[in-house]
Write a structure and sequence with these properties.
The complex is a heterodimer of chains A (about 950) and B (about 290).
Chain A (H helix, E strand, L loop, with lengths): L1 E3 L2 E3 L10 H11 L5 E4 L3 H4 L14 H18 L2 E3 L11 E5 L9 H17 L4 E5 L12 H10 L10 H7 L6 E5 L8 H11 L2 E5 L4 E4 L3 E3 L2 E9 L5 E10 L5 E11 L5 E6 L3 H4 L4 E4 L8 E3 L7 E7 L12 H9 L3 E5 L2 H6 L4 E5 L6 H12 L3 E5 L2 H5 L20 E2 L10 E2 L19 E2 L1 E2 L8 H4 E4 L5 E8 L2 E6 L14 H9 L11 H4 L3 E8 L5 E3 L6 E2 H10 L8 E4 L4 E4 L19 E3 L6 E2 L1 H22 L4 H28 L6 H11 L5 E3 L4 H21 L8 E3 L11 E5 L9 H12 L3 E5 L14 H10 L7 E3 L26 E3 L24 E4 L3 H5 L14 H24 L2 H4 L3 H9 L1
Parallel strand pairs in A: 5-6, 5-7, 7-8, 8-33, 17-18, 17-19, 19-20, 20-27, 35-36, 35-37, 37-38, 38-41
Antiparallel strand pairs in A: 1-2, 2-4, 4-34, 9-11, 10-11, 11-14, 12-13, 12-15, 15-16, 21-24, 22-23, 25-26, 26-27, 28-29, 28-30, 28-31, 31-32, 39-40
Chain B lengths: L3 H14 L20 E17 L11 H4 L6 E9 L2 E6 L16 H18 L3 E4 L3 E4 L2 H13 L19 E6 L5 H13 L3 E8 L1 H5 L6 E4 L6 E4 L2 H25 L3 E6 L4 H13 L3
Parallel strand pairs in B: 3-4, 3-6, 6-7, 7-10
Antiparallel strand pairs in B: 1-2, 4-5, 8-9
The chains are: A alpha/beta (about 950), B alpha/beta (about 290).
């Protein structure tokens, strides 16, 4: 198969046809699209117009490109392209599939499994015998079987929680004879792998498959200066990355929770990152495990054992302030031994118990007085450990002489004894080996530890039982008594070096540890573990999930110590191991473990696990070619202008949008022109050639259009019914247009209208003073009574009117001249009915109608403003033909309302044009009378 | 043609039915006094009674209405309303360019122009005006004239590629209606208008255009022929010409409007895609002397 990068071709000779593409390019380029003949009278206007694009006589380049790609895609498609062609599996003979099968494989095990199944299946299709080994298992006989036999087992294969180890053993277990090997590696370097690689290469070809995904591993947490530090490693070292470490453990109710979280930041190129978690001791003591968030492998889990716990220890001494030398103080050695691994409380007994310590140490305290005694007893019975040291005070006191003191494990003889001193016979006593059953069993007492002076226990019946350490002559050195849930321990020597050299030895510290007084160091020494059988309590699987250990056998301390040093194996799976008095965690990754990427000898082909499936692309290429050819058809039609019929609808819609948008722009251009501009002159001419009703442009196209239609309808009615013959209504921009030409302005107030500029206000006030009239229409009479400013329009009107020179207003009185300038009217509906209309208040509010006269004698001028919200424009609006645009009311009543609103409009215009003429009509009788004379 | 003529007439009458009788304003009445049906709202020559007025000195005895005078002591003269009729000449462009339609669903421009012209004639005749066709029928009043006009319009033969206004048979100080697409030589149109204006004729220009001519909905390589085939223009990218074509069309309309303004005429553009009623109404208003 011919391959080009990741592409292979089934019939590569077809690719020769690609040579023809440039020829096709040239051919297509020379042939322009055929013209269409159209009959079109407008050709008279086209004469002399030149084409802008000279190249259009050739096929445009993008169309050429489209066609070339289409043909190229078809050629490639017929050549049978395959992505990631699988032609490397063409070998013959037996096939060995080796899987590392360690914890590092767990992160992408499904992919590995799929790969294994694919390999088995492929081998089966070629009739090759197959063997499948998991290198994390102990070495076993490698048996080649048919692929069918392996198919089911491959699906059930799971990784182990430990790393593959015994490569030399596997190399020895390999059968004779040639076979090919595929090694699915976890990407980590493992000790001794070279042996197996060499052995496999000697048998036949070796291919390695790795994954590119990084391996993350979490090291056990450690104590450092009161804080818990966690560290993680990664392979390979790459770009900076941040990982969260979760500290998990049970909360007081026993539910597993995240107790703490810390982010580890890997620097670019760094393989290790560290961070400290600062937690209060109460929380810290609850932690059972640390987990790398998001990484599901056993390596990303670190179980926490007792080494994390720090105990609170109360140190109480006799007397208040003994001015003894530092090195003679019994506290000194205890402090030295305990301070690195425990939290110490040094106070008097009552205060110490309030802090609920784990251990109370009484160094040479003889008696504990009343209330303290009671609370101390109660504390011990609840599970406290009371550790007492002897001393001169205890030896001289009467405590526990006759009766056994509850807070002492044994009765004491008076005075004690001194051996090996200047005034005594005998040598200082050494320690006897610790008896089985003692917590100190397994510790080896050093020969140089001697006891010179001690307090002696009375030989009571249970003394032997209570003795956990003795001198070589059998005298008890340490006695212990169980008391409730707790215990009382007495060390028969002082806590300083006065009576013995025990506090000077390492044994002192170890004994304190064994008594669970102090915390163990982070990594247990081999010697600590030796001599005990450790039974697994909790085990980890490869994905880092904890499980019950079940029936797993216990492990010898030496074996466990080796596992902790070298990493878990099949015999010692990772988990928690419990000994007599403590639990030890065996983690997959130790504190010193260094992850290194696998290095393969030159000549071993290594490929990646991802994206390996062969994928025939013939269908895709052919589809692409066909789609491109279809596009080409459309494009050719479009180029020739034959798509027009299909797109006509869309174009019409577009044209409407463009046309409806255009007048606004043209208007704005006109308005922006300075006064001497011919446009302004034209505007003036248009406005003054006849009476023209005008409306204020609000900027809202719908409102402006409605105003125009409304005034057009009113103009028509005026033309038909009166001697007023207005021209087409005009829109006025109050900022830029001259207002003086118009006797009447209709001003629809829209919500959110902006306040006119000062210049515009000046112009408007001048207009109002010189006889103009503005009809403000808030168009909201259906929503609210006018004047409250409760609607957005009402508020806008208040803003606009604030700068206008408007006289005092009043609701239109029933005898206002507007009610009789042309028609006799009682109300003034627009689209809405019943809204109040406000006009200038009459100058003489006290005027009364004369006897027999229907109107008051108010010889007033023209009201400069009429304000209402009845939306008159909508009621007046007609189209160019005279058909009403807006439905008013219902049926005949609605038409009647429209008629009345027209009448109001006519009255209004009459009032504007005739001034107070109608008002003067009240004088007609008097005038006639005078004429008659 | 025999079927086309009555059809055109019915449709025109139907269109004209929806409007009141058109009362043409007889502006230059003094020189072209004709008897007609429309009162001038003042005393004058006519058939309708206007008012009785007391006889002045100088009124001849036969002017006195004796029947009225007999009912009182004074003598009264019976006055009649002053009535006048107007001569309207309609020119409908007979050129081939008017046969264009951009869509099979739309009538050709000539169809719409003839319909408009005849509807206007119906209205005018009903109002008592005298209506004629420029170059085809001299202005006359009466219903018979309508038949004649319809016949002449239907019989019209196609002429040149683009038409020029015909002013023959126009009555001085009368009215004229020009219906055309005005896409031809502007000079010929100017000359025609000037001739008409010279005779004191006022009137309206109605430019009938197909929507396709307004939108220029063409793309790609195209050869444009005029309807008669005398003009040809080839383009490789018709879409590129659109903006410039529209600019030229707008300029043409501007020129026509300016021309009309200069001689006191009215100008409008009517599209065959829109209903004819709007244009008819506009012409009605314009002939009335309105806007």
């Amino acid at each position: 198969m011919f391959t080009l990068g990741p592409l292979g071709f089934a019939t590569p000779w077809l690719l020769v046809a690609l040579v023809a593409l440039p020829i096709l390019w040239l051919l297509l380029r020379a042939v322009p699209p055929a013209p269409i003949r159209r009959r079109f009278p407008g050709v008279a206007l086209l004469l002399g117009l030149k084409d802008e694009e000279v190249e259009a006589d050739k096929t445009p380049w993008w169309l050429l490109l489209l066609r070339t790609i289409a043909v190229g895609a078809l050629i490639l498609g017929f050549a049978g392209p395959v992505l990631n062609p699988e032609d490397r599996g063409a070998g013959s003979g037996p096939l060995l599939i080796a899987v590392d099968g360690g914890w590092a494989d767990a992160r992408d095990w499904p992919e590995r499994q799929a790969r294994i199944e694919a390999l088995v299946e492929e081998a089966g299709s070629r009739g090759r015998p197959v063997a499948l080994v998991r290198l994390s298992d102990p070495p076993d006989q490698v048996a080649f079987q048919t692929a069918e036999a392996w198919a089911g087992r491959a699906a059930g294969l799971a990784p182990q929680a430990w790393a593959p180890g015994d490569f030399a053993g596997w190399a020895a277990a390999l059968p004779e004879g040639g076979f090919e090997t595929v090694w699915l590696s976890d990407g980590l370097a493992h000790e001794g792998r070279e042996d197996l690689v060499a052995a496999l290469r000697s048998r036949g070809d070796l291919r390695v498959t790795e994954t590119a995904r990084p391996v993350l591993a979490l090291h056990p947490a450690a104590h450092a200066e009161g804080q818990v530090t966690v560290a993680a490693s990664r392979v390979p070292a790459g770009a900076p990355v941040s990982v969260d470490v979760l500290a998990q453990g049970p909360d007081p109710s026993g539910v597993e929770r995240d107790l703490g979280r810390v982010t580890l930041n890997f620097e670019a190129g760094a393989t290790r990152a560290e961070a400290a978690i600062d937690l209060p001791p109460e929380l810290r003591n609850r932690i059972t495990r640390f987990v790398l968030e998001g990484a599901r492998t056993a390596g990303a889990v670190s179980l926490a054992d007792d080494s994390l716990k720090r105990r609170k220890i109360a140190l109480v001494r006799s007397g208040a302030d003994q001015e003894t030398l530092q090195l003679l103080s019994p506290m000194h050695y205890l402090r030295q031994a305990l301070a690195p691994t425990a939290d110490l409380i040094e106070a008097n007994l009552a205060d110490s118990l309030l802090a609920s310590p784990d251990v109370v140490i009484l160094a040479d305290v003889a008696d504990v007085s009343g209330p303290e005694r009671a609370s101390l007893t109660e504390w011990v019975q609840k599970g406290g450990l009371l550790l007492r040291f002897a001393g001169p005070v205890l030896a001289a006191s009467d405590v526990s002489r006759i009766e056994e003191d509850p807070l002492l494990p044994v009765r004491l003889r008076e005075g004690g004894r001194t051996v090996g001193g200047a005034m005594s016979w005998g040598e200082p006593k050494t320690l006897a080996p610790f008896p089985e059953g003692s917590p100190f069993f397994g510790l080896v007492p050093p020969a140089d530890v001697v006891v010179r002076q001690q307090v002696l226990a009375q030989p009571d019946p249970d003394l032997a039982e209570r003795t956990i350490a003795a001198l070589d002559d059998g005298t008890p050195l340490v006695t212990r008594k169980v008391m409730g849930a707790g215990q009382v321990v007495l060390v028969h020597v002082t806590a300083n070096a006065e009576w013995s050299s025990l506090p000077l030895s390492g044994l002192f510290v170890q004994m304190l540890e064994r008594l669970a007084v102090s915390t163990k160091p982070a990594t247990p020494e081999a010697g600590d573990l030796a001599g005990q059988t450790w039974s697994p309590e909790v085990v980890l699987d490869a994905w880092g999930q904890t499980g019950d250990a079940g029936e797993l056998p216990g492990v010898e301390g030496e074996v466990l110590a080796r596992a902790i040093a070298e990493g878990p194996t099949a015999a010692t799976p990772p988990g928690l191991y419990a000994g007599a008095d403590r639990r030890v965690a065996l983690n997959v990754v130790g504190a010193e473990t260094v992850l290194e990427p696998a290095v393969w000898p030159a000549g071993v082909p290594v490929d990646r696990l991802e994206a390996r499936a062969a994928r025939p692309l013939k269908g895709e290429f052919l589809t692409l070619g066909t789609v491109l050819l279809l596009l080409d058809v459309l494009a050719a039609l479009w180029l020739a202008g034959r798509l027009r019929g299909i797109l006509r609808g869309a174009t019409a819609v577009l044209a409407v949008v463009v046309v409806s948008g255009a007048p606004q722009g043209a208007r704005a251009q006109d308005a922006a022109a300075p006064p001497p501009d011919p446009k302004a002159e034209e505007f003036a001419l248009e406005a003054t050639s006849a009476v023209v009703l005008a409306y204020v442009l609000t900027g809202d196209p719908k409102v402006d259009e409605m105003s125009r239609a409304g005034l057009l309808g009113l103009s028509d009615k005026l033309w038909q019914r009166t001697s007023v013959e207005p021209m087409m209504p005009m829109g006025v921009n109050i900022e830029t247009d001259e207002l003086a030409f118009f006797p009447f302005l209709y001003w629809p107030v829209v919500a959110g209208a902006t306040q006119p500029s000062d210049a515009a206000y000046a112009k408007l006030n001048q207009y109002l003073r010189t006889g103009g009239m503005i009809l403000f229409d808030t168009r909201d009479a259906d929503l609210a009574g006018f004047g409250g400013g409760t609607t957005p329009e009402g508020q806008a009107l208040q803003i606009i009117a604030s700068g206008l020179d408007i006289p005092p207003l009043e609701p239109m009185p029933p005898d206002h001249v507007l009610t009789r300038t042309f028609y006799l009217l009682q109300d003034f509906p627009g689209r809405h009915q019943g809204g109040q209309v406000w006009v200038e208040a009459s100058p003489d509010a006290e005027a009364q109608a004369a006897e027999g006269m229907p109107f008051r004698n108010l010889n007033d001028g023209v009201t400069p403003v009429v304000i209402g919200g009845n939306d008159w424009a909508s009621a007046w609006a007609t189209d160019d033909v005279g058909v009403p645009l807006v439905q008013i009311g219902r049926g005949f009543a609605g038409e009647q309302q429209r008629e009345i609103s027209y009448r109001f409009g006519i009255n209004l215009i009459m009032h504007v044009l005739t001034g107070n003429y109608k008002s003067d009509q009240v004088h007609v009788p008097a005038l006639l009378e005078r004429l008659g004379q | 043609m025999t079927t086309a003529a009555p059809d055109l007439r019915t449709r025109a009458e139907a269109l004209g039915q929806s409007l009141p009788p058109l009362l043409a304003e007889a502006e230059m009445l003094a020189s072209t006094v004709m008897m007609g049906e429309h009162g001038r709202r003042r005393a004058g020559l006519g058939d309708e009674f206007w008012q009785y007025r007391p006889a002045h000195q100088g009124d001849s005895a036969r002017m006195i209405d004796w029947r009225r005078s007999a009912r009182s002591d004074a003598h009264f003269v019976r006055e009649r309303e002053w009535q006048a009729a107007q001569s309207v000449t309609i020119w409908i462009d007979p050129a081939k360019s008017m046969a264009f339609t951009g869509d099979r669903a739309r009538p050709p421009k000539s169809d719409r122009a003839r319909l408009l012209g005849l509807a206007l004639a119906v209205l005018l005749l009903r109002g008592g005006e005298r209506v004629g066709l420029a170059g085809l029928a001299s202005p006359r009043a009466g219903r018979a004239q309508l038949l004649r006009l319809a016949e002449r319009l239907a019989a019209e033969a196609a002429g040149a590629d683009y038409g020029a206004p015909e002013t023959e048979g126009m009555v001085s100080h009368g009215r004229a209606v020009f219906l055309s697409d005005f896409l031809g030589d502007l000079k010929a149109i100017e000359a025609g208008l000037a001739r008409a204006a010279d005779r004191g004729v006022k009137g309206v220009l109605i430019q009938v255009l197909d929507p396709a001519e307004e939108e220029f909905p063409f793309d790609g390589r195209t050869i444009f022929d005029s309807m008669g085939g005398t003009l040809t223009h080839e383009t490789r990218q018709a879409g590129d010409l659109r903006a410039r074509y529209l600019a030229r069309l707008a300029e043409r309309k501007e020129r026509l409007a300016a021309l009309a303004r200069a001689v006191g005429w009215h100008f409008t553009t009517h599209h065959t895609g829109a209903p004819a009623q709007g244009a008819l109404l506009w012409a009605y208003m314009a002939l009335q002397g309105g806007r």
